[in-house]
């Protein structure tokens, strides 16, 4: 099994597990994942900048975070279909071609939104063009996705729902900052990456 196939498999497993944690039979609920995608796209556009009446420069770091959020919803759409996991992985490998011939990122974003609203599906190829538009690699997508997912699980396991969770840790920094450091300190190509990341967060939280 190639590293990319393994990583796609892990992401699909994580997404299913997180959705199940929120709603046990989530696949039967008919949630409007497409709506979550286009709302995220509007937020993404704000981070990129579109107002001609004021000076704006793209906040590509925030754009990348929004793309990772969109990926969560996109995977949910794919998992909700009748396709098998192997078929979804094969399709992702085939269609996630990170390249674009569009010089204006905002036009690619609008094409993606129009397609999403048109059939309420996840357009993998158009999403890959957005990744290319902010120089985002598959490795960055994977690290960012697994990091966000593991942090969500960690928060749930440590009292996020009842309010006992501490978002600021021992050194006064937010959990997101610790997450970034922990992700960069680990080998994302290892199958154990998500488990090692969870343990690294636990060690930092308990200090």
From TrEMBL:
Protein name, entry field: dUTP diphosphatase
A Pfam family that the UniProt record links to this protein: dUTPase_2
Lineage: Bacteria, Pseudomonadati, Pseudomonadota, Gammaproteobacteria, Cellvibrionales
